[in-house]
Amino acid sequence: MNRELEQFFTRREYFNRHLPKLKGADRRNDIKNLGNTCPSCGYPTLDERNTWEICGICFWEDDGQDDQDADKVYGGPNSDYSLTAHRLEWDKNLKELKKDYTETARNFRRIDELIELDQESNIPEIMKLIDKVSDWFDEGRKSALQQNL
């Protein structure tokens, strides 16, 4: 396992254990089941897998790529990124964000704390925090778009 992505895989395993499988997780014939989280950031932000949905946190477009082909660059919606490269870049950015004193940084740190406890009963609080974080990113995108108009 890539040491830099250890927290990503811990997060993903937690959600795979405690959340139901997503629709579309069985669409690929070469994989038994895709995970139920965004393949890039590991948060449960997608309504369905392998349907070109864009993650509201890390902005990876889910084209069905996952662990088994993470090092390949397919082009398309994710440009010149392999999934592994995007994971590493997102992880680096997330670590920087968590150093901040903002509410969003506190929310990400709290999500990590709750995942570390590995209790299914923490899912409701985690999902509320993920919604808050997603809203923060969404507001940032809207602001950026308005500035460019």
Outline of the structure:
With 149 residues, the chain is mostly helical.
Provide structural commentary.
With 149 residues, the chain is mostly helical. It has four helices and no strands. The longest helix is centred in the last third of the chain and has 26 residues, at 123-148. The model has no long low-confidence stretch (mean pLDDT 87).
Q: What is the fold's blueprint, element by element?
A:
Elements: H1 6-18, H2 83-98, H3 103-117, H4 123-148
Helix pairs in contact: 3-4
Report the sheet-strand fraction: under 5%
* Molecular shape: globular
- Structural class, please? mainly alpha
* Strand runs, count: 0
Q: Measured on Cα atoms, how large is the radius of gyration?
A: 15 Å
The major β-sheet equals:
none
| Low-pLDDT residue spans | none
What is the number of domains? 1
Number of helices: 4
How helical, in percent, are the residues? 40-55%
Task: Give me the strand/helix succession.
Answer: HHHH
Straight-line N-to-C gap: 44 Å
What is the average per-residue confidence, as pLDDT, rounded to a whole number? 87
Highlighted features:
149 residues; mainly alpha; 47% helix
